[in-house]
Amino acid sequence: MAVLLLAEVAGGELSVDATAKALTAAKAMGDVTVLCAGAGCGGAAEAAAKLDGVSKVLCADDAAYGNGLAEPMADLLVSLAGDYEHIVAPATSSAKNILPRAAALLDVMVISDVSAVVDANTFERPIYAGNAIQTVKSSDAKKIVSVRTSTFDAAGEGGSAAVEAVAAAGNAGLSEWVEDKVAESDRPELTSAGVVVSGGRGVGSEEDFALIEKLADKLNAAVGASRAAVDSGYAPNDWQVGQTGKVVAPDLYVAIGISGAIQHLAGMKDSKIIVAINKDEEAPIFQVADYGLVADLFAAVPELTEKL
Amino acid sequence: MVSGVAPDFEEKHAMKVLVPVKRVIDYNVKVRVKADGSGVDLANVKMSMNPFDEIAVEQAIRLKEAGKAEEVVAVSIGVKQAQETLRTALAMGADRAILVIAADDVHQDIEPLAVAKTLKAIVDEEQPGLVLAGKQAIDNDMNATGQMLSALLGWSQGAFASELDIDGDNAVVTREVDGGLQTIKVKMPTVVTVDLRLNEPRYASLPNIMKAKKKPLDEKTAADYGVDVSPRLEIVSTTEPEARKAGEIVGSVDELVAKLKEAGAI
Ligand SMILES: Cc1cc2nc3c(=O)[nH]c(=O)nc-3n(C[C@H](O)[C@H](O)[C@H](O)COP(=O)(O)OP(=O)(O)OC[C@H]3O[C@@H](n4cnc5c(N)ncnc54)[C@H](O)[C@@H]3O)c2cc1C
Ligand SMILES: Nc1ncnc2c1ncn2[C@@H]1O[C@H](COP(=O)(O)O)[C@@H](O)[C@H]1O
Which CATH superfamily is domain B12-234 in? Predict the structure, then answer.
């Protein structure tokens, strides 16, 4: 069966990790063609062609796709859909914006955040903040699937697929891009980092979040946050880990001043090793932590940073 | 009225706002998977309005208070008990409500595609200038309905909004995205799905809860709109995720460092 994988392209570059993880899921559904769409996406297409197991790469190079606007991107997917039984993408904020729109235009359901591929029509997905795993079987002619990247290993390199240009599908001009506010950082990316250090409401202020960041830098880690820390303005929105934020599964996750609400656990409980530092020994985070330290974070975190 | 503004200005620009609200298990309830794998136990558990939809209702009411909307209509699709969810929206300040009964069993979830088709039919009838939906229902975690509705209507979409500014024929939407924030300008009418940081929803006061009982609540069925709500996704099974075992409490930072080294984590 033929699968079209929408690559994650940001700023003209391929997000290799997200795309390669979704590729692993896509390969379980059939023969994979990767679609790179962007304004000047030739480089992304070349990079996608090197991924192992890609049959072909389509490159839709047009200004309309430069900022990932949902309306033209969905129209592009619909224009190509005829040749494929599956349209797949990593469950990034961009794909979550685009795929349901394309699915509705094709009169099929979208299958969001798939965590396992049982067969080409049957998928597992977490529901209720990961408190239940549902297995669903699609009766639709086309399966439109977003993939929870944290549960798939990234496909390797070694491919040499041909790159083919495809025509743009027009732009109805329903929306236009104004600006992106993206913080530049030298730290690893949250969803692909091997180590994540997250702070919660207990950190108490934006200034004191520097404690979390210092520990993260010592561990070469990405920085995460709870919703409460983001809502309180201690951390930016793109650091939020959880049911409605990012889902991470690093080798090591350190939760500091985070109580462990189910909505937070939904985003990190598949981490290999979880460390919790909290002054309240009753905090639910200790029920999922491999190593818990009951302590005041303002003493424990600087000490830990120093001793590592 | 502000002097100097033509009398028909407000009228021309004031619009109706449609807010789809879903009845879901309360976010504080510990979810239990039924032992026979048939689903999640929803009998006798506390149900509430989907938290994102409270944010959408709040935003709609604020638009009305700011003179940018003239009427706020809440819609829910599902079982009869969703009446309570609509009464909550009315108590917060929505003007009227439409309940579309599409299931008898509280365990039957109506899929986003069917919800979007029903909403499309209601939009065709009501002609709102704006639909404000939640980003995600916290039960099925689909994150799809608003985008699907926008597609069916051929409208623009502003998904995951943390700021919304409506100005005549356009709206400026700041969206929460993986890399940070993205601002886009969308043509009206539009579908906006709201994220957590858009506002803090108000509580309904007791007098407003009383008043809400008298506000109009229309009851319809999915068949009234000619929508087939049968699912496209067959639920094969629902199981409990693998449980994590609690580990150990360490006595000091030194011990923590030693344990992490031992485990090869650092
Ligand atoms: C629709 C919806 C979606 C949500 N999505 C998410 C999501 O994606 N991600 C998410 O994280 N949450 C989410 N939440 C919020 C979630 O329910 C919790 O409110 C949130 O996770 C709590 O954050 P917290 O643990 O930082 O704060 P709190 O629960 O207030 O916990 C703070 C912790 O810090 C500890 N502490 C305080 N001071 C110190 C100190 N000096 N030293 C050590 N420890 C200290 C306290 O003991 C406490 O355990 C969502 C909620 C809803 C309703
Ligand atoms: N059955 C429903 N009735 C009313 N609104 C709904 C329903 N299902 C979904 N919605 C709306 O669509 C949003 C996203 O839901 P979902 O796509 O299921 O994650 C919700 O926050 C609601 O605003």
Answer: HUPs (3.40.50.620)
Dihedrals phi, psi of B50, to nearest 5 degrees: -50, 125
CATH superfamily of A2-165: HUPs (3.40.50.620)
Q: Is the CB of B93 under 6 A from ligand 2?
A: no
Q: What stretches in chain A show pLDDT beneath 70?
A: none
Q: Are the beta carbons of B183 and A307 separated by less than 8 Å?
A: no
Which residues in chain A are classed under CATH 3.40.50.620?
A: 2-165
CA–CA distance, B211 with B153 (Å, rounded to integer) = 34
The residues spanned by each domain of chain B are 12-234
Q: Which residue has the tokens 């430069």?
A: A66
Predicted TM-score (pTM) of this structure: 0.97
B112 touches chain A (CB under 8 A): yes
Specify the ligand 2 atom closest to the Cα of B78: 1
Q: Which residues of chain B have pLDDT under 50?
A: 1-11
Q: Which fold has domain A190-307?
A: Rossmann fold (3.40.50)
β-pairing verdict for A175-182 and B180-187: antiparallel
DSSP string, A92-109: -HHHHHHHHHHHHHTT--
Q: Residue ranges of A for the binding site for FAD?
A: 201, 226-227, 240-244, 257-264, 278
Are residues A190 and A239 in contact, defined by beta-carbon separation less than 8 angstroms?
A: yes
Query: Counting Cβ atoms within 10 Å, is residue B180 exposed (0-12), middle (13-18) or buried (19+)?
Result: middle
